[in-house]
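Researcher: Good morning. I'm working through a list of sequences from a screen, and I'd like to move beyond sequence-only analysis. For each chain I'm collecting a predicted structure so we can compare shapes side by side. This is the next one on the list. No need for commentary yet; just the structure.
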Amino acid sequence: MTISPPVPEVGSHRLGSPGLRRVNLALFAAGLTTFMSLYCTQALLPELSGAFGVAPATASLLVSLATGAVALAVVPVSTLSERFGRTRVMIVSSVASALVGLAIPLCTTFAALAAVRAVQGFALAGVPAVAMAYLAEEVHPGSLGGAMGRYVAGTGIGGVLGRLVPAVVSDVAGWRWALGVTALVALGFTLAFWALLPPSRRFRPARVDHRPLLAHLADPGLRRLYLVALVAMAGFVTVFNFLTYRLLEAPFHLPQSVAGLIAVVNLAGSAASARAGTLTDRLGRRPVLLGATGLAMAGVLLTLPPSLPLVALGLLVFTCGFFAAHAVASGWVGLRAGHARAQASALYLFAYYLGSSVGGTAGGLAYERAHWTGTGLYVLALYGIAAWVALDLSGRLVGKLRG
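Model: Good morning. C-alpha cells for this chain:
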C-alpha cells in the first residue's frame, strides 16, 4: 500500500484562523444539504402512509432505503477519495444528490418513490463518507473536536429543516410541493458549500487499497466505536420516524404541521454536539461519551408517559444525548486511525447508516406491535448497549484510543 507522506502540522487550520472559519462554514452547509435531503420524507411518513396505503414500517422504507444506500456506498466512495481527492468527491456527491432530489415530487407510485430515494442515498454518500477525513487532515488536532462538533451541528440543523420545511408546506400544498420546496432549499445550500469549501492542503493521493479496511476492523477500539454508531443511530431514527405517528393519534391529536415541529429539538442537539466537541478537547472522550448515552436514555424514559410536556422534554434531552455521543465517537475515530482516515471514517458511517436503515425499520415493527411503550423499550435497549461500550472503553484500551 502507498501511504501518503506526513505533512507538517504548521499548514493545518487552527482556531481563529480565516481558513478554519471557511472550513466550518462550508462543512456546516454540507451538513445542512446532506441531512435535509436524507430525511426529507421522515416528517411526512404518516401522510405518505395514507397517500399510498402502506403500513408505518413500510412507509419508513422511504428513510431506510436512502440511509441504507448511503451505508453501502460510503466505503467505496471513501476509498476513491484516497485517490481522487476529498473536495472533488464531496462536491460531485452533493450536486448529484441535490439534482436527484428534484425528481422526488414527480413520483406517482410508492415503488417509484422508494427507488428514487435509494438513488438519492447513493448520490449523497460522498459528503458524509469524506467530511470527517477532510476535517482530520485539514484541521489542527487541538481544534478538531470543535470543528467536528460544528459539522455535526450542521447535520442537526439540516435534520430540522429536512423535517420542518416539508411538514409545514404539506399542510398548505400537499406532500409533492413539500418535497419539491425542500429539494430547492437543499440545492441552495449545496451551491454555498461548493463556493465556500477550501481546497485540501494536506491531502496526498494514495493508491486505492482495501487492506486498510481490514486493519481498521481488526482494531478493537474502532470496532467498539462503530458499534456505538450503529445502535445510537438506530435509536435516534426510530424515535423520529414513529413519534410523529404517536402525536397524530390519541391522546394528543396534533395536526401534521405541529407534529412536524418535533424536529426543532435538533437545534438543541446541534448546540449539544458543538459543546460536546469542545468538552472532549478539555475533559477526554470517554466520560463525555458515557454521559451522553446516559442522557439519551433518560430522555427516552421521559417520553413514555402520555403527557405532551414530558414527551417534549424527553425528546429534547434524548436528542442532546444522541448528538453529543455522535460528535464524540465520530471525532474519536478520526484520531484513532493512524492512516487511511477516510476509510476508517467510512466504516463508522457504514455502521451509522446501517443502524438508521435496519434499526429504524425494526423500530417500526416494535411500534406496530406494542405502540410507543414497545418502541421506547427498544430504544432503551439500544442505548444500553452504547453505554456498556462506553464503560468498556477503559484501561489499556482508553490509553490507545486517546490518539
